[in-house]
Amino acid sequence: MRFLVIEQDLRVWGTSQGIISRSFLAKLRRSYPLSIIDVVYLKQGESEDRLDLLPVNSIKAFVLDLKIPFYTKWVNKFYWRIFHVSLTRNYIHKIFGSYIAKIDYRQYDHIFIRSAGLDCETILGAKDLPILKKSIITFNEPYPLFWCTGSTSKLTNLEIFKVKEMFEVVSQAKSCMATEILSEDLQYLYGSRKKFYSLPHQYDASVFDLSNVENVFKKKSKIMISYHGAIQFGRNVEILLDAYQELLENNLLYSENTEFVLRLKGIDKNKLVAKYLKCTNIKILNFASFTDSCNEQMHEADINIILENGPLYCNVLVGKAPFLAATQKPILSISPERSEMRRIITDPKYIANCNDKEEIKQKLEFLIVSRMSSNEAANPFGDYFSDENFKEMLDKVLFGTSYKTLVTSQQLE
Predict the structure, then answer these.
(1) Cα dist. 309→5, 117, 229 in Å?
(2) Shared domain check, 17 and 151
(3) Same domain, 122 and 96
(4) Which pTM does this prediction carry?
(5) CATH of the domain at 187
């Protein structure tokens, strides 16, 4: 088989999307080792990519000039208010489309167009192009922004017209895929007449160089609790830290033997630093490179934290989840009532309601006590992120059924 993958983000750090996309290519190669895999990489600026680590046959990388002409920006001030269409967005989509239109797509059996971030430029850039009818488009976030969990974006006519525009893209595409709950929600949002398939994010260590450990934080206590990530889209880290503080105040054992190390980014970071400044067990550090983050959470941390979007629901799979599964460390997911984590975590001791401080405190205390007595490997996600499950789910996207079912059917014939 011949695969073409159009990517927008293959960076080695700074974004979870780069981690997800690189790992997708590694898992695609492992699933179909004899296939041809070609990549077209449409990047928005110079970045650290280490493309030499990716197990593909060829990569064509292009740095796109997305600077909006002054005239376009000036006219757009009035245009979008009257016609509910953004000329600046259209200009960017045309730039992406100009590169996609030059691809000789007919030589490929399967084509993936994978979005990155909240604006889906690669997908929208393919609108009305012949390649789209042969392409599987991938969503990693709800689109448009108004439908993103925890977003403060307002529902404007511009947002509604974005839904209509994406409906046209979805209708033209061969098929669509996203993570589990997101695929369900987007199929409903766009009124799609075709199935949205689900495929989880992946992590594969082979496409990263994790050898540099100079800046890794070394734990100072018997038990280190770790969270690395952004504070955005309703992720509630304060209720977790308040619960941890209460554990420290009520039991000297925890105060003397545990620490909570957070590497944060987001507008609320300084506020959190000030609030917990007097608690020496809580250490809020600068955001780390992916190499440092991986080594800290894999080799130093004893309990890793996942914060899902909230507070009511989370329909995206956090990018760090497959990596944290690979660490085989206990995790505690702070989650709303409807969320991806609640679908895939196999043991309730690893998940707590993001609005219930008492439950968070009880679950966190249980994991601390358990970890003090045992370093046994944990497997909160079962085989959800396994190579076998990835291939079985991808086969359904490509062929409409799993490879095992396909072979069995052919044998019966």
Answers:
(1) 29, 15, 12
(2) yes
(3) yes
(4) 0.92
(5) 3.40.50.11930
